[in-house]
Design brief:
Structural class: alpha+beta
Helix content: 40-55%
Order of helices and strands: HEHHHHEEHEEHE
Number of strands: 6
Radius of gyration: 29 Å
Oligomer: single chain
């Protein structure tokens, strides 16, 4: 009875996978490890540009009208009056300031982070060639590798920027043996992807859930 319960227990491993020295070698002059791809972010840039262009054009027109002897626009006079007598602790003022701050932090993060998390940079074996691999495609390749392991009934592969998590179900063979074979197969698959940095690997194997 004890052996039966032990056989049904979950077997899991979480080991750092390091690429071999030979495969990690970069051709001299290739520029070293490839960095992540930067997103163009055309939509946010276009929206911000249009808003700034419209606001700047409106302000310049109003200033030119005032210089020519015409009164300032109604909205600018009204805004100046409201700002002069409006307490700063009003709820809508605080909420507006928080929203403006959140938008500003979001724009700063967009400017300082590369984005394109779905595109994994590959090793630069040639100085003038830069390649990337789609994260979903890489996950599918590793999933196919895992399905080739004897005893694996189904498998899910979750691939992040620095770690690969494999969750498999095994309907026969010892769970520790299946887990060990999965470690080797997926580790080899990660190496053959040619990514610019080694990825962590976590493998979890369990029995299928009994129905009924």
């Amino acid at each position: 009875m004890t052996e039966r319960v032990s056989e049904l227990d979950q077997s899991a491993s979480a080991a750092r996978y390091e690429r071999s020295q030979k495969s990690a070698t970069v051709v001299e002059g290739a520029g070293g490890r490839a960095s992540r791809f930067w997103s163009a972010r055309r939509i946010p840039a276009t929206i911000v540009s249009l808003i700034l262009l419209g606001a700047a054009g409106l302000m310049l027109y109003d200033i030119a009208a005032v210089r020519a002897g015409h009164p300032a626009m109604y909205w600018r006079r009204k805004l100046a009056e409201q700002l002069a007598k409006q307490p700063l602790n009003e709820t809508w003022v605080v909420v507006g300031a928080c929203v403006a701050m959140a938008v500003g932090v979001w724009l700063i993060l967009l400017a300082l982070t590369p984005g394109l998390r779905a595109l994994l940079p590959m090793r630069r074996d040639f100085p003038h060639v830069r390649a990337g691999l789609d994260r979903a495609a890489a996950s599918l390749v590793l999933r196919d590798r895992a399905m080739e392991v004897s005893g694996v009934q189904s498998v899910r592969v979750r691939m992040k920027h620095a770690k690969v998590t494999v969750r498999a179900r095994s309907h026969f063979r010892e769970l520790d043996d299946v887990r060990a074979d999965l470690d080797g197969a997926v580790s080899t698959g990660i190496d053959e992807l040619g990514l610019s940095r080694p990825l962590g690997l976590s493998v979890h194997v369990r029995r299928p859930t009994k129905k009924g």
